[in-house]
Amino acid sequence: MEKFRKATFLILSLSCILVILIFGKALAQATKERYAWTQEITDFRVFNQCNGEWLVSEGKAHYATQWVGDSSGGGHWMFRGSHNLRGIGQDSGKMYQVISTFTQHLNANGPDIQFEWTFMNTSPLISYGGDQNMIFFIRNHVAVNAKGEWTVSFSEVSIECR
């Protein structure tokens, strides 16, 4: 668990530094930047843990990102995505609908290391036929105070077969 925390902290710290470097000019004043795009996805492999079958899917993904820099030097970043894919089971040949949504938020409060990061993902895998549906959930949250101390850190992952 300690290795996971250190790796997560390193990734999040580097992400914060990257965000600050990229948007450094925006930190001096209140700003808002938004971008959105759609992407075609092909040959996206998904594993159905409810029946042990791989499926290959394709479809559209929509993404949006937003950056808000505040006048106190803080930055607030959001990344949101959704996938609407159709797939075919490699063993059974059954059709599946793969629908996922995720959000990621990062709030940095000025020039020190203090930040809060949250990632949430819900990914239902819906079977057209007699197989069980699978729903995959992820929820991660990390908070670091101005001294660089972890005040909150958890990761929840669950899979439901219905």
Question: Could you write a compact summary of the structure shown?
Answer:
The chain contains one helix and seven strands; from the N terminus they run αβββββββ. The chain is mainly beta and 162 residues long. The chain has a seven-stranded antiparallel sheet, with helices on one face.
User: What structural category characterises the helix and strand content?
Assistant: mainly beta
Percentage of β-strand residues: over 45%
* Major sheet attributes: 7 strands, antiparallel
Contiguous runs where pLDDT drops below 50 for at least 5 residues = none
Shape estimate? elongated
Question: What's the number of domains?
Answer: 1
